[in-house]
Amino acid sequence: MLSYRHGFHAGNFADVFKHCLLVYLLVKLKQNKPFAFIDPFAAAGTYFFEDKFMQKNKEYLNGIIKVLNANISDQIVNQYVDLVKKVNSEKNKHSINIYPGSCLLSSLVLDREDKIYLSELHNNEFEILQKNFANDSRIIVEKKDAYSTLNATISSYKGSRLVLIDPSYEVKDEYEKVTKLIKHNTSQFSDVCYMVWYPVLDAEKTNAFIHNMLSLKIKNTTHIKIELQNSFLRMQGTGFFIINAPSEMKHDVTNSLAVLLETLKDQNYPAQIQYDVF
Ligand SMILES: C[S@@+](CC[C@H](N)C(=O)[O-])C[C@H]1O[C@@H](n2cnc3c(N)ncnc32)[C@H](O)[C@@H]1O
Predict the structure, then answer these.
(1) pLDDT in the model for residue 91
(2) Average pLDDT score, the chain
């Protein structure tokens, strides 16, 4: 049974890096129509700062709140920050009440003719997800196991596609499952853009995952590993494998990632970004 609730972590530093890069990719890739965004580990889509999940550890204080309070002029960071502000200004002009997840952000970025596919296995998260997007005809929401259905889902959309692989890594062999999922799907759909998120936790597990993903030797793989030691959380960084990223991505996002790192890092500890294209 799944117990992870994204609300505990919504708006933390890992969400900020992930959602900033995701918005960048959506804006770029939707230029090629038809376009579909596939988010098979969708979670609920909306997270309320006041609810018990977000209040438990208040991870957003070292994430989105620092970014909102900083005076950032980077255009790619600001296109993400503006969406967070937009979600909130519609409800209340003066305070931040809601943190938008990947699916809500995608629904704001994408155009009327674009498609969005969301799946979520957790009962409560699925119910919220369904309610959140019931009136948006671009969006399909299903309660399906991402690992066994992704292949069929990708094949049901034509044209340019972005797949976000964003599991909770709560199942013991989840890193192996993600590696297998990527191996299988990239061999069948080599033109799709895949964005895989992972947390930097204990070095042995994290390094084994990185090693196994890079051993797949998939062409046009970008690996970004962001380490920011943190006295507050077990997670000491975050990383991404982006397969088939736009060729200009490194040029476009290098400053944005550096600005976010400077804003989010704990000033008492070293922090760094490793960015490699294979
Ligand atoms: C990290 S959260 C997703 C966060 C979301 N993508 C975002 O950025 O806002 C991972 C979600 O995947 C769900 N999940 C875990 N295993 C799954 C599976 N096999 N199929 C579909 N959903 C799954 C979990 O219940 C959880 O809500």
Answers:
(1) 55
(2) 94
Distance CA 91, CA 132 (A): 15
Q: Which of 39, 41, 103, 148 to mutate to test ligand 1, by most ligand atoms within 8 A of the CB atom?
A: 41
- Ligand 1 pocket test, candidate residues 23, 38, 104, 120, most atoms within 8 A of CB: 120
In a domain, 113, yes or no: yes
Q: Which domain holds residue 75?
A: 6-200
Write down the pTM of the prediction: 0.96
CATH number for the domain that contains residue 123? 3.40.50.150
Ligand 1 centroid–CA 19 distance in Å is: 15
225 within a domain of the structure (yes/no): no
Number of domains in the chain: 1
pLDDT digits 0-9 by tens, 47-94: 999 999 888 889 999 999 999 999 999 999 999 999 999 999 765 555
How buried is residue 257: exposed, middle or buried, by Cβ count under 10 Å (0-12/13-18/19+)? buried
pLDDT, tens only, 194-230: 999 999 988 889 999 999 999 999 999 999 999 997 6
| Burial group, residue 164, by CB count within 10 angstroms (0-12, 13-18, 19+) | buried
In a domain, 254, yes or no: no
